[in-house]
Amino acid sequence: MAPKSAFRRTIISRSQAARPTLADLRAYDQGAGEEWRVESFGYDRFASLPFDRVAAYLVDGVVTQYSVYVTDAQGGFYVWSENLDRALELQFKEGRPSTFNLRNYAIDLDNLPEAQAAEGSAYRAEILSVDEFRFAAALSGVEFRPDVLYATYDATTGFLDYRTGAGDGAPAHDGTGYASVVTPTLGLVDTLMDQYIPVSRAIAVRLAAQGGLAEYFEGIAYDVVSDKFTPTGNHELAPMFEKILERAPAGSDAQIAWLGKWNDILNVLYADYAPKAEEDLSHEALFQQLAAAYENVSAAGHAPALTLSKAASLLGVDATRIITHDANATTVAGTAGEELRFAAARRSRTRRERNGGRPAGRRPRERKFCELKKASLNWRLTSEGRL
Fold this sequence. Notes:
387 residues; 6-stranded mixed β-sheet
């Protein structure tokens, strides 16, 4: 609003109008050539887009397709950019409305199998809301132009129109050669996802650690200043592993799925975790902590359906390095590399010989997180990697 200075003085002088309503303001006369103007600061010009989601298809972490929302006389549907490109090329070459029926290639974002794939899968799909895609664009310093995410069939001409965000329509049908407008956009989406995926995961885990999943982050705190996760006690990640294993559903298949989902969260945590006793979180330390948690949960009557080796492999430990054996075994088959050895509680002093391989190259530090919280299971890691 732009009131006259005399009006401002009038409003200020009247205590009853210290917070005038819109009706109060309209009751005052305006001077010649002046008028009141109401502005809304909550306006979002992208609030009424015809689509509400965007999907990116990744192969080995590289975006190979992105979703485009297409509207025709029957309504709207999503297709992969590859099929849109084929329809545009055919339209260009034939010089008439495309005979390529895009509806035959519609995708259902609610039931896309690749959207359920784990983070490290070779083939997977990332589905974002429009606001998340806008956030991805902002991360990369790119102006959000929704034109690249939808196409329309002209109701009059029947031509398929797809704009690249620069104001240009799809390639003219009377040109001399087809130049894909999808290819450069594909590169852009790949750049956006390269920024968005790690940042969004980092933010999500930080929010979860302080909110909905806080009870699982036992013994772990998020330090805002250093932007790191740090242990609050001497057991490092062992209490968190214990909570995860303790709450796992019954059955091996269900536990595999459970730990697989937790692995996506833990991979973010591992990257930003600051251990007390070393600079980085090693496989040796990770295995020690997980073994302690596994034994604690088993001793408490909640033994996992999975073996320690399987659970460890699902939570980020290199399974090829894990060697488990009974403490009374006289010979243990090893490998040619460095191993993470785990033995059950010793019942005798029978001498054991290794058959190949060697324990992890350095002697693990004696650290309190390796001491199980159960008094009856107060173990520590020996120089040969046994608990």
